[in-house]
Specification:
With 263 residues, the chain is an alpha+beta fold. The protein has helices at residues 8-17, 29-33, 53-58, 72-79, 99-106, 108-128, 147-150, 154-168, 209-220; strands at 83-96, 132-137, 140-145, 181-197, 201-207, 226-229, 244-247, 256-261. Strands 1, 2, 3, 4, 5, 6, 7 and 8 form an 8-stranded mixed sheet that branches. Strand 2 (132-137) and strand 3 form a beta hairpin.
Amino acid sequence: MAKEKLSPQQWWHGLLTGEAPPLPIRNFRHVWRMLPDGPRCKFCNAPYHGIGAPLMRLMGKGPSRLSPQLCRQCYDYASAVIGGAEVEVTLLFADVRGSTPLAERLGPSAFSVLISRFFAAAGEILIRHDALIDKLVGDQVAGMFIPGFAGPDHKRRAIEAARDLLRATGHGGTGDPWIPVGVGVHTGVAFIGAVGDASRATDITVLGDPPNVAARLSSSAAAGEILVSRAAMPLELQSAAIEQRSLDLKGKSAAVEVFVLAP
């Protein structure tokens, strides 16, 4: 169905769930999928590397600066569909622990280099695990593991990404991490879509209680810790042998039960 025949909610629901993704020039998706080489756009399959990449870039299909899981053309296409849908999503938030004293000790320039290195490492890991990057801001990274992109096993993939991120920042080894990071992972039904004014500026983001909980969990995690809510922990991974905590998070009327994981 063409985009104009669908409501924004229908359009986004089909895309986010993967049930009937209303993709631009979708007839070419299978052709572009045959062109080497990954990574590639999650919407249209345009490759970012290999023999087809120069042609894709000429067509405006190089990776989007805001979310490299999507090419520039597809990101602009989706951003123009103001609205969204409520779907289950697993969210990963990662915070730098003690960033204020760290910035004071290093100075602005050295701290910016360190944060840029953290953003690069986190972005590469989120993309590799098929998450959409929601934001890279301040000292925090947020990724969305959406069924339509990350698949039905999005909870497990978010946990794997969290562990990879801690290992990539030096946690779990014999020495100190090169940057101290805490991670929160939570699953819930959230609004995902394009917000803003199409005539001015729009953004693709996630809204609702789940991102707030994931952000609070990441703020509560110590350096080298992953706090995974019970809602985000696959049943087959839940075990009495794993440390569990009950956290009173700001803004939540009831305590949140979490599993504490290490790299």
